[in-house]
Structure formats: structure tokens, C-alpha cells
Amino acid sequence: MRLTRLVIALTLMAPVLGSCNGQDPNAAIPVIVDSDGAFDDIKAIVYLLEQPEVEVIALTISGTGIAHCPEAAHNVSALLERIGAPQIPVACGRTTPLAGNNEAPPAWRDAADTLGGVDLPEPRPLSNLNAPDLLTDAIESADGDVTLVALGPLTNVAEAVQSDPAVLDGVEMMYLMGGAVDVGGNVLYGNPAAEFNIWADPTAAAMVFATEMPITLIPLDATNYLPVTPYLYQAAEAHRDYSAVSAFTADYLSVTPLLGGMYHWDELAAVAASDESVVTIEDRLLAIDGEGTTLDDLAGRPVRVATAANRGIFERHFYEAIFGAADPGIPVWEPDAVLTWDGTTCTYEGPDPLPDDFFIRIDNASDGLAAFLTGIYDAGATIADFNAAVAAGEPGTPSWWKERAVIVAPAGARDVWPARGGPEITALCYIDPTQVWEIAGPRLPE
Questions:
Q1: Number of domains in the chain
Q2: Other CB atoms within 10 Å distance of the CB of residue 108
Q3: pLDDT confidence bin for 180, thresholds 50/70/90
Q4: Which of 87, 321, 333, 381 is the most core-located residue (most Cβ within 10 A)?
């Protein structure tokens, strides 16, 4: 069980981009981005490339996260070419974690490998160095200390530490999207207490946490405040002609399904690296266990933890950078259905049977996770079977349940999400991790 929340006052410095580190305060801050090429990584990268106070000096790609390497490295290199970015070296890391075999679902990886099929030019040549060596070289050759923005599993950073532990002395701060401290994780069918980036290579994460490098953690605690909603897609289409970056973003979103349960994970880490006022930060002592869980630990290392995020500040920064308009002027999307969980009762108001595609608002008034699931039972299965599978805590969806959509709503969520249904589809209200209710579509006997 996760330890009781512990907040300890520490005397950590709190450097942010533009802070005094012996450099010209008007000079662009050198930034290295370590990414796994996922949907949110791409948007975080283009955000940082559009920041005038930032100079991205290297892009290292982990092959242990969502996308494979070298596919993700070629995608990023081609993206730089399409938007006319400066000549930034891009390098690929290893394809397996330092230990274990935790891996994203193959369908996620395949989609990330092609960026959904968005139009890209021929990629620029990759660096002759591998990712850990490029990371080391970029830190050592930078004009002053660098800011490291880590958006995927920490495999590359850990390998750099293995080769030369002193290399991280040149990192002023690492902004790490990872972990789930006081909230549930997002590895729904693996370790429900873990966040994916840490879970994918917990050995690497523990190795990095064993260093003295300053870390500002952007965990699910903060990113849960920023769901990806239809607003982003509407804003992208309305402002696609603003710049090469906005045109790419609109094209990318047009081939990327708007799925429920996605958040601005890596984008928040990027925005926090440029303006920490977007998050609320507490000093904590943390450790990483062998299953990839982030734990409060009196014997852990000091970490600056983002515990909440300001949606208004985030959208102002992100939309201004990408679309040239801090307020894109997009109206609020009206839902077709509403799911409400008050901690005791799960209620649904909406069409039944379900439409093929619709929008649902989830109001989670509890202090725990709730989810809206749609899918099809195999013949012979019952809702009691589903509850038994949930109670058993086994990883993976039951083989007799063909999943169509999963929308995970954290505590306090009140947002509109896209959903997939159909007349033959059953909708479930899933309350972590104790019970499942049928709420729409074909019902089965108990």
C-alpha cells in the first residue's frame, strides 16, 4: 500500500528556464528533450521549438516507450524538416528496458511509428551517436548548464549515468513527465498504481532517482487536470494557417483519433519547463519500486512534485505558441450523454442503444477513479464474470470482453470526451477497482 502522504519542507533550489545560472539572462536556455515519440511527445516538442527563450540543442529518442526506434527518431527528424526547424541532432536509444519486459500494447506502438500517417518529408540524417552518447555530448558542449525535459522512459538518461555519473552535473533541472504520487496510475492492465513512463523501465527510473540531479516531477497528479478534449481539435482546424507548426499540428490531429482518457501529459512538462506557474509544486521524498510505482518514502530522494495544474495558464501558453492565439475562440462542446459517479451511485443519461460515435461528459464527484467502458461480451459471459475478473486484479482485459473504448476520469473530472459505441455495444461504469455496472446497450444476466 502506498505510504500516507508526506509533505516535507526541503531547501531545494527552484530553477526554471530563464533563471540565473551564470548565463546571460537574455540568452536562450539550452534544452535537451528525451522523448519516446508518442502522441503527446510530438506536441510537447513543437511547443518547445516555438519558445523564443528556449534553444533545443538535442533530441534523444527512447525505444522503450510508445514508439519504436529508429522509427520514432526518423519521425522527429522529418518533423524538424517539415516545420523548418534548426539543424538539431536526433539520436536513437536502445529498444529494450534495462531490466524486465514491460511494453506498451502493439497497436499503440504501431500507430506511433507512423505518426498516424501524417504527411512528412524525407527525414534529415540522424546523429552518428546513439542517444545516451548524444545526451552526454550535448550536456558537455552546452554553453552553461542545460535543462533536460524527459518525456518517456528514462532508459537513455540511465545509460548516460552508467557511462559517466558526473555528466548530470551539467543539468540544472530535469522536468520529468512520470509517476503517480497521490493518485492512481494509468497502466490499467499492468500495475494500476504505476504511470507508464516509470513502469516501462523501472530499473532506469530508480537509477536516475539515485543521482543528485535536481528533478521536477510532472506526475499524473498534475496532468489529470488537463484532459485532451474536442477543444484542441477544433482550435487546430480553426488556426491551421497560422504557421508551419500549426499546419503540421492540424494535419497530425486530423489523422489521430480523439480517444477518451488522453491527457496533456508531456505538453504539461514542456510548459512547466518554460513557466512553473502552470503547476503547484511541493517538495517530497520519493522512491521508485521494482514494479514502477512512485512512493512516498522517508528514505527516498528529494523531488519537486507538481501536484496540480492550472488549465487556464496551460492553454494560454500552449495555444499561443502553437496557434498564435491564447484564446482560440472555440465554443464549449455539448455532450450527447452524461455519466455521473458520486462515490455511491453511477448514473447515465443519454441514448440507449448507443450511437456509433458520440460525446459523453463524465462527472466524477468522488475522490477515486471512474471509467466509462464500451465493448462486446462473448456468448456465455455475464456481468458477474466481469466483476469477478476485476476483483481478482489480474492484468489485461478478460478474453471474453472485446473492448471498443475506455475513458478514464480522475477524481473531480467534469469533462467531455469522445466515445465509440453502436447498437450491439454494451456500456459499463467501472469504479476502480471494486465494481462494474452495465448502464447502456445489451444487458446480460447476472
A1: 2
A2: 16
A3: very high
A4: 321
